[in-house]
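Why do we care about 3D structure at all? Because function follows from shape, and shape follows, mostly, from sequence. That is the central idea of this module. The next example makes it concrete: a single protein chain, its amino acid sequence, and then its structure expressed as C-alpha cells.
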Amino acid sequence: MILHTAILITMGLISFSILLNLYRMAEGPRTLDRVVGLDTMYINAIAMIVLMGMYADTDLYFEAAMLIAMMGFVGTVALSKYFLRGDIIE
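And the structure:
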C-alpha cells in the first residue's frame, strides 16, 4: 500500500517535470536548449514507463522503456552530428 502511494506521488512529480521540459522545448532561446529539453523529456518518459510497470506489476513496460532508451540515444547522436557537421550521413 505504501509503495503504491509512493509510486503515484513520484508519477505526479515526473509528470510535472515533463511539463517543464515541454516549456523548455517551446521557449528555449537556442536550438541546443530545445535539444536538451527533448533529451531530458525522453529520460523522464522512460522513468514514467518504468514506474507504470512497477505499479501494474508487469514486465512488459520495462521492454518498452528499453526501446525508448535506445531510440532516444540514437536520436541524440543524430542531432549532435547534424549540429556539428550539418549532415548526418557522411
